[in-house]
Amino acid sequence: MSDLEITKRYGKSLSPSGARPPGAPAWIDEIDNPYLHGVFAPVDSEQQADAPTVVGEIPRDLSGSYFRNGPNNRFAPKNRYHWFDGDGMVQGLWFAEGRARYASRWIPTEGSTLELEKNDAVWPGVLGPFDFSLPLGPIKDTANTDLIFLRDRLIALWYESGRPYTLDPRTLALAESDLPSALPRRLSAHSKVDPNTGDFIFFNYGDKPPFMQYGVMRPSGDVHVTDIELPGPRRPHDIGVTADYSILHDFPVFFNEAFFKKTGKRIPLFHKDVPTRYGVIPRFGNNGDVKWFEFEPCYMLHVVNCWQEGDTIVMLGCRTNDPSLQPDKRDGKIAAMLSGIKLQANLYRWEMNLATGATKEGPLDDLNAEFPMINDAWLGKKNRFSYHSIIPYEIPATFEGLAKYDLDSGAVVDRYDYPKGVFGSEAPFAARIGATEEDDGYLLSFVTDTRDWSSSCWVFDARNLSAGALAQVQLPARIPAGFHSTFVAGDKWF
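Below the sequence we write its predicted structure tokens.
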């Protein structure tokens, strides 16, 4: 193994010996990038287990499917690697009557299929430089970010706004899509399904006008879509949803267009003198219906939840106060990436009064926690609880614990910290069969133990996280750290 100084410096994600984790491709040995090592190291094969070993006991009233998306590079990168570059791979764990089964599959995107044919990487990653002569465009749509359950199918989405890939929720294989042709070809991750109406609320964004589109697809398949006017290209990551409105995001974090045209590199800058703007639009509104509200400059990756209180729209999210972190020169060519991916995010509340135009904002807590999840039945209406992953500032996505928030007070009311060297995942809420109360259910987390490189799914009681896992479903092989997840109730797909 070469002398990987940068990776050693971020050694929380490495095994005690620093050796290559099992199942990882040999080519990572020569690449000094912590997001290709340790818990982030890709695996070189898909896996399946129809009756995995269980430590403890799976609750019999846990019924449904836990799916998680994430990056898993097949080939050595052409250029500087960013964690967001990896090919999408879905982990699936199905529960019914105290039993489980497991499978993992790569998402066969257009880009990854072409690279398989060539047996080599074709595209550089998001760090560039970009080559507009490449097939399918200068950057590969990896579909590696999010998963939406829509029309009895899983939809894999990409944070850069890409093609929606339709997957069979039983096998994770590519499935025939019945999405209407009126739906835009490009959709962003974190588009949402209203559990009360079945409406699919979506958005996308790009570097050319229109810089944003917003829309809704009804369960009937009817599609409403409108272009949203913005001052220029922006990088919204999420969208807020209430019963009657959606909240669009315009943050003062955007690229230097002149530098991009000159070098082919996109470097996001935080403009501290430009306000954050949130645009409230009626669910089936158009651009002219948007009411924009200004707030202190910031950035936010993920919304917790939104709701209406009379004329006031309330939005809770994980706010980053200052994303303009200074690169560490010791990190060489990937210094900008490592500084940009460091995440300082705290629970925060914004209020927007549609009648008066008044605004209010402020922090609720100072714990560094992100990847918030709620009981999805409460999406768009006032809820009390959310569940966040506790993350270290230095190297995000090594999820070190779980925190349960009481959103009425902003306080952490329950917490679980993984043992040293053990790292979890975004943990969706799974309602108990027959549950009527918001927090009556379970949290599910894919977990990797770097002490022996085993991976498993831990099942927690959402009302008693601190007690630890009720069950640990042992997976047949190590899995890499991932991004976003969803839980689909019911045993239909078991």
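The helical segments are 5-9, 110-118, 257-263, 335-341.
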